[in-house]
Amino acid sequence: MRWVISGDVRLALSEEGDPAAPTVLLVHGYPDTHRVWDEVAGLLADRFHVVRYDVRGAGRSSAPRDGRDYTYDHLAADMAAVLDAVGKPRAHLVGHDWGSVQAWELLGRPEIRERIASFTSFGGPGMDQAAHFMRDGSRSEVAGQLLRSWYIGAFQLPVVPELAWRTVMPRVLARTMRVSGGITPRPGHPAETLVKDGVNGLALYRSNMLTTRRTPRPEPIVETPVQLIEPTRDSFVSPGLLASLRRWAPAMWHRRIPAGHWAQRSHPGTLARMITEFAEHVEGAPPSRELRRARTGGHGPYADRLVVVTGAGSGIGRATARAFAAHGAEVVCSDIDLAAARRTADGISGTWGTAHAYRVDVADAAEMERFARTVRDEHGVPDIVVNNAGIAVAGPFLDHSVEDWRRTLDVNLWGVIHGCRLFASQMAERGEGGHIVNVASLAAFAPSRSLPAYSVSKAAVKMLSDCLRAELAGDGIGVTAICPGFVSTAIAGNATYVGGGTSPEARAGAAAGAQAALTRRAYPPERVAAHILRAVHRNQPVVAVNAEGKIGYALSRISPAVLRRLARLSGAGEISRLLNKD
């Protein structure tokens, strides 16, 4: 710790890492101190010269003699003094809350802008930019932000805010951190000087807020490269306000993190990686996939997303892979039939974009582990995974062998478990969310005397999806169970038919009849794929597809007894009706 003089204020300055490395300047918000950055600073220090300071009136820094000396002019002088003390020509600036608020303003000033190589903002928009949003935004968006910003008006009152900080506010802040931020107090945050910092920092709002809102700059453009990180559970800043900032930063990368307001505390690894990727890209390194995706623009709603689809060689899997590719995604097509996976990938590469083909048996845990590692190492962590591969065994329960059950559960259930377990762990470690789609069936909730193993496996897939959705929501990972009715794919023709001593010829005839029935249904897999893309976009938990799927799902909730009666029906026609996906 050393001291920097700025006017009549003494600023407490902390430095870590190699002074010869590129400098990252971390600026804290209100009512924090530089200690809020402890975890992130420790992770950045191996690659950067990390600089932090307590802003005027906070932590170990002194307060100005005149309580009105918290204007942007004074904050600009403080930042310039810190940059002078560090002795670097340029720094990568990272601002949180009021550290970000002041940075948006100061980057409009040549004396600061020329010394900042990049700006990472989270938890605090610029006041000029916010004023334009309040004037031009929709009524609902503006009203939502005003509700989140109620405290700004309260802080303008005389005496009352100071009294609150000396009585109830420390407890309120601790509760807000726990409930909205997902964190608990630890040594250094909140600081021991919290009450003093809270009282002093009120001057930030009183000196800058209302004046700026009345007379915003006509065009508050920030020419510095900006990485906007949006904590998706921030209680203080609305998504609409953050989205409006794109207008004011021509070079913007907009990223999201499933965190509350204090993301540097709850998700330090993710935040440190984002800061590193952006700073290194500005320094000349190629952008990561996540940075490419975050760049404003794109040629489709899934532009630069990485999508993994199992069972992509035919049917629903192939249609889903093609649909994501048509909307801008890079697709990994896997199938137990490598030639079929290659045909799907080649068709995508020749029409829309980039696709890769892999052979994998989803029932084999070791193969799936190698496949997941290969995807991560060769292409990156996937954003969307569609666990689609499946098989069917048709016939009475008493004619199912142990091997019939084992094969069905290994592919239809364990294949989904492997895909969820391996890829969800990658998504959670990356910390930027994602989505998992598990293709189940009408058979998940409509019992069948002719498809016992298949129905059991699909019911388990639906329940697995519900369980995972609850567990992974905190990581920003959505989970959807897709439950199609009868779809015109080849699964009926490829199914195994068992039963009471029937001859191979009879089983072949049953397969042909079942396949013909699905063909006559004329519900193409491309329509299922459209439901999958829509479900990912909307983060839907369960999607029943087509008329029989929706009717069956509704009956399972309204009158399960009706479905149990229907399950007593028998015959090859019923087999063909309930085999529904490929």
Overview of this structure, please?
Helix 5 (127-136) crosses helix 10 (194-214) and helix 21 (504-521) packs across helix 25. The longest helix has 29 residues, at 402-430. Residues 571-582 have low confidence and may be disordered. 51% of the residues are buried. The strands form 3 sheets. Strands 1-2-4-3-5-6-7-8 form an 8-stranded mixed β-sheet, with helices on both faces. It has a 7-stranded parallel β-sheet with strand order 11-10-9-12-14-15-17, sandwiched between helices. It folds into 2 domains: 2-294, Alpha/Beta hydrolase fold, catalytic domain (Rossmann fold), CATH 3.40.50.1820; 306-578, NAD(P)-binding Rossmann-like Domain (Rossmann fold). 48% of the residues lie in helices and 15% in strands. The chain has 582 residues and is an alpha/beta fold. The chain is built from 25 helices and 17 strands.
Summarize it.
Helices cover 48% and strands 15% of the residues. It is built from 25 helices and 17 strands.
Q: How much strand content do the residues show?
A: 15-25%
* The CATH C-level class name of the largest domain: Alpha Beta
What is the tally of beta strands?
17
Q: What's the number of helices?
A: 25
CATH architecture of the largest domain: 3-Layer(aba) Sandwich
Arithmetic mean pLDDT: 92
Using only CA atoms, what is the Rg? 29 Å
Largest sheet: 8 strands, mixed
Helix-strand category: alpha/beta
Helix-residue proportion? 40-55%
Number of domains: 2
Low-pLDDT stretches are 571-582
CATH-defined superfamily of the largest domain:
Alpha/Beta hydrolase fold, catalytic domain
Strand order of the largest sheet: 1-2-4-3-5-6-7-8
